[in-house]
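Entry 14. Ran structure prediction on the chain below.
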Amino acid sequence: MMKVSAKNWGLIGFVLLCSLVLLTGCGQPAGQKDSSDQAAGQTTEKESTDQADDNISDFFNKVQIGQTKAEVDAALGVTPTSPVEGAFDYVDENGNGVTVIFMERSLGDGSPKVALSKKLIGTEKYITEATDDQRITEEQAEKIIEGMTYDEVKGILGQDGFVVSETEGSGGAITTERYWVKPGIASMLSVTFAGPAGSDLSTFILNF
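Output, C-alpha cells:
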C-alpha cells in the first residue's frame, strides 16, 4: 500500500487564485439582475456545467496514444504552442486543453515520433464544477489501497474516475491517472493505474 499526503504546488496556486476570484465576486452588489435574468441563470447553470465537463473530456479524448503530430493536429484543429521541446499544448476556444508529448517509441532507432503521453489542461475546471453527486467522502477514499483493480476502486467509490493523463511505457503498457473529487476546492483522490482497462492495478495513490 502506498498512500501519500502531499501538497501540490500547482493546486495551491490554483486555490489562491480561486480565493481571489471568489473574494472579488463577493463584492458585486446584490440585486443587479432582474427576476428574468435570475430565472435564466438557474435554468442554464446545470446545463453549462454538464457541457463544460463533456467538453473537457471530449477534447482530451480526441488524442490517441500512438498518433503522429500531424494526426493530432488534424484531430484537434488548433495550432499548439510548445513550452518545452517535444511537448505541445493544444487549447480550444473554450479553454479546454491537452498537453501531448511526442517521442520515438525506441529512442535513437529513427522511428517517427508519436504521442506517448497526454495530460489534461484545465483539471481545475472539473474539480470546481463537479456537482455534489460527483464527489466522494473521506471514508470512501480511505478504503482505496495499492494493488486494487480499477473495477474494485470504482465499486467502492460508486463512479468512474475522471481520466487526466495517459502514458505509454515500456512494452506498450498504458498508465492512466484518474481523479475522484472530494468536498472542498482542489480536493481529490488521484489514483494511477497500469495495465489493460478493467484489470489495471493501482500503483500510486495521492490523497489530497
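Strands lie at 3-4, 81-84, 87-91, 97-103, 114-121, 162-168, 174-181, 188-194, 201-207. Will compare against last week's run tomorrow.
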